[in-house]
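Ligand: S-adenosylmethionine. Inputs:
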Amino acid sequence: MLLIESKYLDSHYCAGKTIFDKMLNSVGFNVSSTLLDAGSGNGCYSTAISKIVGDKGKVVSIDINSDNLFSFKRTNEISTGFSIQANLISIPMKENTVDGVWCSNVFQYLTENEKIQVLNEFKRIVKPGGKIAIKEVDLSTTMLGPSPRIFWHIVLKAMSSRQINSSLNMFNVLKYSRMLNIQRISYKTYILEWTSPIESKVFRYLHNLSGTIKEIFRQIPLSEEETFYLENYIQVRENSDYVVSEDFYWREGYILILLQNE
Ligand SMILES: C[S@@+](CC[C@H](N)C(=O)[O-])C[C@H]1O[C@@H](n2cnc3c(N)ncnc32)[C@H](O)[C@@H]1O
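Predicted complex:
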């Protein structure tokens, strides 16, 4: 399963909903405004944003992937809004057309140059004074109990992966926003952590996530010890010793970079 598939996105949002909604609500988007959900995936956040803007507001959801937009159209509960299939490096909207942007877990897929292009597009389409909120995985906060050392050892081996590298380098976005004269309001990391016993919705998410992580790491030559760790700890499986262990622990963090158009 890919990290952009609809089934994965649902399990992710569902497991972290309390914290993710807190992040979204902390931005201070206004009722009756028009907001862009940039890289909306299957629309988990578009639905949450539509509740903030209300009936008089509008949600525009953009994603490059038509499969996800299709499933979003099928399932969304948004009364006022529409979706567009497009690449964020060239957004098909006029200048100053939205009051704000929410962009969740998309920057990890962009090259450094694309991050600058996308920020520039946000600056172009957001009205003066409008907020631009970028949420991303902050891999540096990850901790897998009871033995995180080998996890980090493997992560360092996988630094050639754009996703892993980007998830450790989100501070670059602060530098790019300064380059583009977009004002910085704040940046803050929010932590999700789970201990034993985990609820079924958390198991579902971690099972999906860890299966994919294992596939990413499988492309890297690993020692016997590293492979053992990958199979028995990083992979969250039903009734595995790791999951049922009293010491099970999983922590992950998300940074929220809040910017404002001048
Ligand atoms: C991990 S998903 C996140 C989806 C959603 N924002 C969420 O947090 O649930 C990343 C999404 O970004 C989209 N994406 C990646 N690069 C993009 C680009 N250059 N332009 C538009 N969408 C992009 C992918 O198709 C995918 O749906």
